[in-house]
Design brief:
Blueprint (H helix, E strand, L loop, with lengths): L33 H13 L3 H10 L1 H4 L5 H8 L10 H10 L30 H19 L3
Length: 149
C-alpha cells in the first residue's frame, strides 16, 4: 500500500513540473536555445498555462523573433472575450480600458424568480445499525421478488 491510513481510499494524481523560462536564476541550469524556448511555450499552452507562455514569448522576444512571428503566437494564445475575438494587443488594451469586462458573467437577474433556499447542513453519514437495516431490507425485498408464490 502506498500509505498507511486508518480509513479511506488513497488518492492519486498527476503533476508536471515545467521550467521557468524567464527567471534569472534559470541560467544556473543552462541556457535554453530559441527552439527549446518555443517548445517550452508549447508545453505551457498544452498544460493550460497560456499566461506563462505569453510571458515567455514577451520576455524572450529578441531570441525568438528570428524564428517565429512572436505577435502571431501571442494572438493565438489570446482567449476570446465574450463573443469577441481580439488580438493580444487589443486584449491588453481592453483590460487597461475596462477591467470589469473580464469579470465572470453570472446569470442575469430574473424578476419573479424565487430565491433559492440556503443549503442546510449535510446529512450525517448513516450509522452501522442504519446500514445493516438497509442491507436486510434489500435482501428481503430481493427474496420476495424472486419468490414465485
Amino acid at each position: 500500500m502506498l500509505a498507511q491510513t486508518t480509513w479511506g481510499q488513497p488518492m492519486w494524481g498527476d503533476l508536471v513540473y515545467l521550467r521557468d523560462g524567464v527567471h534569472p536564476d534559470g541560467v544556473k541550469f543552462g541556457a535554453l536555445s530559441p527552439l527549446k524556448l518555443l517548445k517550452l511555450a508549447a508545453l505551457y499552452e498544452l498544460f493550460t498555462l497560456p499566461d506563462c507562455a505569453a510571458e515567455l514569448l514577451l520576455e524572450r522576444r529578441a531570441d525568438l523573433a528570428p524564428l517565429v512571428d512572436v505577435d502571431r503566437l501571442l494572438d493565438l494564445l489570446t482567449p476570446p472575450l465574450g463573443d469577441e475575438r481580439l488580438g493580444y494587443r487589443g486584449y491588453v488594451a481592453g483590460f487597461a480600458e475596462d477591467p470589469s469586462r473580464f469579470y465572470p458573467q453570472g446569470e442575469p437577474e430574473q424578476e419573479g424568480r424565487p430565491e433559492e433556499p440556503e443549503p442546510g447542513p449535510p446529512a450525517p453519514p448513516p450509522t452501522l445499525a442504519q446500514r445493516a437495516k438497509y442491507a436486510v431490507a434489500r435482501a428481503v425485498g430481493r427474496a420476495a421478488a424472486s419468490d414465485p408464490g
